[in-house]
UniProtKB/TrEMBL annotation, chain A:
Pfam families: EF-hand_5, MPAB_Lcp_cat. The lineage of its organism: Bacteria, Bacillati, Actinomycetota, Actinomycetes, Kitasatosporales. PANTHER family: BLR2777 PROTEIN, ER-BOUND OXYGENASE MPAB_MPAB'_RUBBER OXYGENASE CATALYTIC DOMAIN-CONTAINING PROTEIN. Residues 383-407, 408-443 form the EF-hand domain. GO terms for molecular function: calcium ion binding; oxidoreductase activity. Transmembrane segments: none annotated. This is EF-hand domain-containing protein. It comes from Streptomyces griseofuscus. InterPro entries: EF-hand-dom_pair, EF_Hand_1_Ca_BS, EF_hand_dom, MPAB/Lcp_cat_dom.
Automatic annotation (TrEMBL), chain B:
It comes from the Bacteria. This is Isoprenyl transferase. GO terms for cellular component: cytosol. Mg(2+) binds at D31, E215. Belongs to the UPP synthase family. It holds the Pfam family Prenyltransf. The active site is at D31, N79 (proton acceptor). CDD domains: Cis_IPPS. Keywords: Magnesium, Metal-binding, Transferase. SUPFAM superfamilies: Undecaprenyl diphosphate synthase (SSF64005). Binds 2 magnesium ions per subunit. It is an enzyme of class 2 (transferase).
């Protein structure tokens, strides 16, 4: 990358002209990414890390967007951006270690684990082309492998983990599939729970009936497509079902999605789709307004449909009372980020991770924010974990919720303010606010209009954060950030 | 609508109608269903059944007469004390009526909403229908129809007081306008005319804040017998009255709420 691009014999490893760049905007990635994630989750160490730390069951859309952005940075032309992203991912992964249910240790920084993640991405890219009937040429596969090796090298791991040549890679890959992969809980959750319970993307939040209807059809199909695309030997070993027609469905799906290449250029950009799925209806993005208007019409159509259908229609779940939410709702929507029904450190770490990502924090600000969240966790644990099992259940939380705003939470608010206040002028201006919440100032954001500009003072910021985090107020800018998918 | 009425005959508007302004906000206390049934030796429920026709007739007449706001007192917080059978029947009847007439109300451009509706005894399915009708018609710009269901005027006033305190409004800042802004549906203007059928002359805890300056008429006809012609008679009576709002200038219609 550092050399001049005039040498056509040496195509660049990253950015425009690379093999990966050609594939990057391909809609088939949707399937390939899911498949790669399943293969990752089948690795015992990664599976354990996902079970403990990942928020993808509860917040899949946020996670999808973050993954997409990360890949874009890692495979972009800019070496500095790549180095920064690699450092960020390294810091993030350093924090992911522990022991699984059967007390085996896991560590997201383990070189073997990291090599396997790269391997699944590479192999899924190759397979996605094969399955849709347009396999990459052998030389293109070679080039792609070189690029993924460079991607792996960008993390600074020793190079021995990923085999040097493509031929050796396939041996390594087959051995991993044959010997290392297991039918892990994380894999089962992705295959059978995530698709069946996939939460609606934030934009479609108000349409539970419609979403449930579509999901009932698409969810099982997605699961079947993913299973059918997994290596045969692994399907056999993990005891995954061979559904009649699943193979044909899978190939049909890959083929159909591949047809999207005949759409006029720019019609289907994964970037736009990923953005749209993670977009909150309260955002000031013009697309959000369009969708909100559409949403409103669909809501009315849904109301009419319910009114004119025979009376037996089941009532939709009750809308939350405006302005406030119950302790249970707050626990489920905000605090329990990993969706396991308990509040533990990984839940708060996931919040810190999301905030660090949004604010694009570097060391040492990132560590300060994590430390503040860790202190808050200890405070919560001390105050709420009444049965002493090391975690806080929804009942324990609900019993003590009103007395939640302790000194560590206040400190967390202050650290977050410092991190968000990039220029250190003790107020959050328009740009800093947008970085954190991805939307413009809301009218109700107690802005003190000195010299006509709207600003957000430290006091107001801390107050709003506390009232959100102690579960007292709904519809704050933090909702799209931490509560919605 | 007018031509349908039996006792008025030839479809002419009552004499003098149209000479004064039509009241902007009319409210009806729908009284006399039970007595109507008793006079015919029918169960009370038959009276409620017969009331549905009147409701539709009144909505249609009010709309074509140019009334902008119509409020109907369907069920009070006190009505829960009635026998369980009757309450259950009423819930079922209202649910049927809402579903049956929803497309018509939407086609007529009527905006519907429900005042009250907080009691846990309200069946969830009914509450869902109320919410659906509100959603469906929420953007209509024709007449606004407010159905007071499980409504109590005092409770609304208490709710406003609670809301004021919750918002931390200092006592000296509380004016009538600010207080009114904390009532449920603060955009509702003052009621100009209340019609209470069956000759009863009570307020019965109905929209207490909003009826402060209302004119009242008490036609002796029972609600199931009340028809378009009676409604127009009431509007006519209203137009004959000189409204004073406690002062001297004979204005018509209440001031719009800010």
């Amino acid at each position: 990358m550092s050399h001049a691009a005039d040498d056509s014999a040496q195509p660049p490893l990253f950015g425009p002209g690379s093999q990966f760049h050609e594939l990057f905007d391909d809609p088939r990635w949707a399937f390939a990414m899911v498949r790669a994630t399943v293969l990752e989750a089948a690795h015992p160490q990664i599976g354990a890390a996902l079970i403990d730390n990942s928020t993808f069951v509860i917040h899949p859309w946020r996670r999808l967007r973050n993954t997409y952005l990360s890949l874009q940075r890692m495979f972009g032309a800019d070496d500095q951006v790549r180095a920064k992203e690699a450092a960020r991912l390294n810091r993030l992964h350093t924090r992911l270690k522990g022991r699984d249910a059967s007390n085996r240790p896991y560590d997201a920084m383990d070189p073997g684990v990291r090599a396997w993640v790269v391997a699944t991405l590479f192999e899924s890219a190759v397979t996605m082309c094969r399955l849709s009937g347009r396999p990459l040429s052998p030389s293109a596969v070679e080039r792609l492998y070189g690029e993924f090796r460079a991607y792996h090298a960008a993390f600074g791991d020793e190079t021995g983990q990923l085999p040097l040549t493509l031929a050796e890679f396939w041996v390594y890959y087959d051995r991993m599939v044959e010997e290392e992969l297991e039918n892990t809980e994380a894999m089962r959750i992705i295959l059978y729970k995530l698709f069946d319970h996939l939460p609606a993307p934030p934009l479609l939040n108000g349409l539970p009936t419609l979403w449930a209807l579509g999901r009932a059809v698409v969810g099982p199909a997605l699961g079947a497509i993913t299973v059918a695309a997994l290596p045969e030997s692994f399907r056999r070993r993990a005891g995954l079902p061979e559904l009649l027609g699943a193979g044909a469905l899978m190939q049909g799906a890959y083929l159909t999605v591949d047809l999207a290449r005949f759409l006029p250029e720019g019609w289907l950009r994964p970037q736009n789709i990923a953005d749209l799925l993670a977009l909150s209806p309260t955002s000031d993005d013009p697309r959000a307004r369009t969708v909100t208007a559409l949403h409103e019409r669909m809501r009315r159509a849904g109301a009419l449909l319910r009114l004119i259908t025979p009376m037996s229609f089941r009532p939709a779940p009750e809308a939350p009372s405006p302005g406030q939410r119950s302790a249970e709702e707050f626990f489920r929507d905000v605090l329990d980020q990993t969706g396991d029904g308990y509040l533990t450190w990984p839940d708060l770490a996931a919040m810190a991770r999301e905030l660090c990502g949004r604010l694009d924090l570097d060391e040492p600000a990132e560590t300060r924010l994590y430390d503040a969240f860790a202190d808050w966790w200890r405070e919560l644990q001390t105050a709420l974990d009444t049965d002493g099992d090391g975690r806080v259940s929804a009942e324990e939380y609900a019993a003590a919720a009103p007395s939640l705003a302790g000194p560590a939470l206040i400190r967390t608010a202050e650290v977050l303010f410092d991190a968000a206040d990039k220029d250190g002028d003790q107020r959050i201006d328009e740009a800093e606010y947008r970085a954190l919440f991805r939307t413009a100032f809301h009218r109700d954001t107690t802005g003190e209009a000195t010299d006509g500009t709207t600003v957000y003072t430290r006091g107001a910021f801390v107050r709003d954060f506390l009232s959100f985090m102690s579960g007292r107020r709904l519809s704050t800018p933090y909702d799209p950030l931490l509560a919605e998918s | 609508m007018v031509s349908r009425s039996a006792d008025e005959g030839s479809g002419s508007l009552p004499e003098g109608f149209g000479k004064g302004p039509v009241p902007r906000h009319v409210a009806c206390v729908m009284d006399g269903n039970g007595r109507w049934a008793a006079r015919r030796s029918l169960p009370r429920t038959a009276g409620h059944l017969a009331a549905e026709t009147t409701v539709i007739d009144v909505i249609e007449t009010a709309r074509s007469a140019g009334v902008e706001w119509l409020s109907l007192y369907a069920f009070s917080t006190e009505n829960w004390r009635r026998p369980d059978d009757e309450v259950a029947f009423l819930m079922q009847l209202i649910r049927r009526a809402v579903r049956k007439h929803a497309p018509l109300l939407q086609a007529r451009g009527i905006r519907c909403r429900f005042l009250g509706v907080t009691h846990p005894r309200i069946p969830p399915a009914l509450a869902q229908d109320f919410a659906d009708l509100t959603t469906l018609t929420g953007r209509n710009s024709g007449m606004t129809l407010t159905i007071a269901f499980d409504h109590g005027g005092r409770r609304d006033i208490v709710a406003a007081a609670q809301s004021l305190i919750r918002d931390g409004v200092p006592p000296e800042a509380v004016t009538e306008e600010i207080f009114a802004a904390h009532l449920p549906f603060p955009d509702t203007p003052d009621v100009d005319l209340v019609i209470r059928t069956s000759g009863e002359q009570r307020i019965s805890n109905f929209m207490l804040w909003q009826v402060a300056y209302a004119e009242w008429v008490f036609p002796s006809v029972l609600w199931p017998d009340f028809r378009a012609s009676h409604f127009l008679d009431c509007l006519h009576t209203y137009q004959q009255r000189r409204r004073r709002f406690g002062g001297l200038p004979p204005e018509q219609n209440g001031e719009p709420q800010p």
